[in-house]
Amino acid sequence: MKPSLKIYTLIFAMIVGFYSLMPTIVNADSTEKIQKIDQFVKEQKEISKIPGISVVIVEKGKTVYERGFGYADVNSKTPVTSDTLFELGSTSKAFTGLAILKLEKEGLLKRSDDVQKYLPWLKLKYNGEPQAITINQLLHHTSGIPSITISNIPKSNEGNALELTVKNLLDQPLNRQPGSSFEYATLNYDVLGLIIEKVSKQPFDMYIKQQILEPINMKDSFVGLHQVKSNEMASGYKIGFMREQNYTPPIYRGNVPAGYIISNTNDIAKWLKLQLGNSQIYSMDKRIIQESHIPDQSVEPFDKDTYYASGWGVMERDKKQYLFHAGENPTFTSYFIMQPDEQLGVAILSNMNSGFTTAIGQGVMNLWEGKTVNTIHSDNLQKLDKIVSLVCVIVVGFGMFLSILLLTTLSKIVKKQRIKVALNVKRTLVLFIHLISVAIIFALISKLPEILAGGSNWEFAKVWGPTSITVLFYSVIVSCVIYCLLGLVKIFTKKQNELKV
């Protein structure tokens, strides 16, 4: 018996020893991943010019990584922390989608209902014919509302801003038959927000705060900038002349349901855990969470193997399902991605409008899953900024050249080297051609965003585009005015020694 006892004792000791080493192995693996993520985010931050980034990873109900990079405010050198507040952009849509499902569970609406049951005045047409639009079609972006309607959201901080925003759709024809195909339009979720107001008999912001955020303990999150009472709010930035530029955009309170939840990574960790089904302490029905993840497969996917659910994209990749969404506001971006089978979620918040935020989020997820990551990314706004900055230099240079010519000509008039002359047929014709050319140039300038971006306008371009666009716009206007004045001065004067024209 003694040899057997020794053998069993040895085996038991080996088993205990093996399991005692496991945390060290896991921690070593996690440490390596964390180091790679730290390096990756730092590199991407430098390339993207994003001032501040906040990252959180949750796994199996625990927050396994949470870190801030850079500055919440560049001027004051305030560092980003897990308490730093960011605008979420369109990752806010999942909160609105969840509220709709909650109201349905309470018997206050049905997703199959016609929108006009709640907003009888919202009569929209396709090819001149009135259309019935369901709540489901709004949730899944299959209502036919055009994506370009984002450019006409009214600037307002008034309590009725949401209704004003939705009423803007009354003069807007639908792009497609409702339910026929996918077209992402942020205003779908503003209409849902107004329906939530009508059904709950509460302002949208109060309903979301009290019925969604507070029950899941997101105590430091807000619904719209008007709710924010905290000094933790990050400053927002845009790219401009190849560096970050501080910018304060107009307030679009009517777009809160689609893009203006304000939060930090502390609270977003709770949100991800709720979505992944491992937050037992929160008083939210798991079934409606799961229902919000069910994609609409009645239409073609909007990307390869990717369909839209209720505020979430649902993607099949490497035989795994991922839930994701990007958020973009004029000076903030975010990206959430989750792998439900592994109960794994990643969120990235940043205080600049940049496509790099999405790339960083995807990269962090890949690194945590042990995959290789692509470190070479590009951002359309950054590319646009480089082009616009170069054009700005050319336009400003040309404007300065015209200014010198104008000042030289005016100097000659003062010195009597050029004298006033009456119009004749030839000069009248030149004047006419000159004024027509100036009018055409101004017309082209005013219509340029519409020509290039199909229905957009300069106001939208100035708010959403690089700050260099605004400089270019005014530089072109000033150069055109100088060109017009120079032409007029030349036409109405002549050199003292010039032969009579």
TrEMBL record:
SUPFAM superfamilies: beta-lactamase/transpeptidase-like. It comes from the Bacteria. InterPro entries: AmpC-like, Beta-lactam-related, Beta-lactam/transpept-like. Gene3D superfamilies: DD-peptidase/beta-lactamase superfamily (3.40.710.10). It holds the Pfam family Beta-lactamase. Keywords: Membrane, Transmembrane, Transmembrane helix. The chain crosses the membrane at residues 387-408, 429-449, 469-492. The keyword Translocase does not apply. It is found in: Membrane. Its main location: membrane. Residues 37-354 form the Beta-lactamase-related domain. This is Beta-lactamase family protein. It comes from Lysinibacillus xylanilyticus.
